[in-house]
């Protein structure tokens, strides 16, 4: 945990997708201080006509490299979230040549009772985690 969903335009190679997901994971490790194997990621591609990402009037130019990263997580501090935004953009630029202007992030907070990692159990509540 957290659960990461990445939405992007179709057309990336398997290698490019793996690079992107690895970069996202490194940012999660750095900003949220989770264990290495705390990795839950979904990558979804969309045709260009099915993904619209504008700029809320901020003047941000987008390209076909746009990625939307949704983070489902227990509550994180503002500092941790800001570190994640920064670390993520740095990782994606350095390793995947994705400009920060093509990175949009949304963090969705929830509670420990909202998670089951399998076997029909709520591991945060039962004390398994």
Q: How would you describe what is shown here?
A:
- The protein has 129 residues and is α/β, with parallel strands linked by helices.
- It has helices at residues 14-32, 78-96, 123-126; strands at residues 3-9, 40-46, 67-74, 103-110.
- It has a single domain (3-126), classed as Macrophage Migration Inhibitory Factor (2-Layer Sandwich), CATH 3.30.429.
- It has three helices and four strands.
- Strands 2-1-3-4 form a four-stranded mixed β-sheet, covered by helices on one side.
- It is globular and about 45 Å long.
Count, helices: 3
What is the top-level CATH class?
A: Alpha Beta
Helix content: 25-40%
Q: Work out the count of structural domains.
A: 1
Cα separation of the termini: 11 Å
Which range does the strand content fall in?
Answer: 15-25%
Spatial order of strands in the largest sheet: 2-1-3-4
Mean pLDDT, all residues: 96
Rg over C-alpha atoms, rounded to the nearest angstrom? 15 Å
Extended strand count = 4
Question: What is the level-2 CATH architecture name?
Answer: 2-Layer Sandwich
What structural category characterises the helix and strand content?
alpha/beta
Q: Biggest sheet: strands, sense, closure?
A: 4 strands, mixed
Q: What is the chains' assembly state? A: single chain
Shape: globular
Low-confidence stretches: none
- Superfamily (CATH H level) name: Macrophage Migration Inhibitory Factor
- Written as H for each helix and E for each strand, in order along the chain, the element string is EHEEHEH
CATH names the topology as Macrophage Migration Inhibitory Factor
């Amino acid at each position: 945990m957290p659960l990461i969903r990445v939405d992007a335009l179709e057309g990336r190679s398997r290698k490019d997708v793996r690079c992107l997901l690895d970069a996202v994971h490194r940012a999660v490790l750095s900003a949220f201080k989770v264990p290495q194997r705390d990795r839950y990621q979904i990558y979804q591609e969309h045709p260009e006509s099915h993904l619209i990402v504008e700029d809320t009037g901020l003047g941000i130019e987008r390209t076909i490299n746009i990625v939307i990263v949704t983070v489902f997580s227990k509550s994180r501090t503002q500092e941790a979230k800001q570190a994640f935004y920064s670390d993520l953009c740095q990782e994606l630029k350095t390793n995947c040549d994705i400009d920060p202007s093509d990175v949009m992030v949304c963090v969705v907070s929830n509670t420990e009772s909202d998670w089951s990692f399998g076997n029909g159990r709520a591991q945060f509540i039962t004390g398994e985690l």
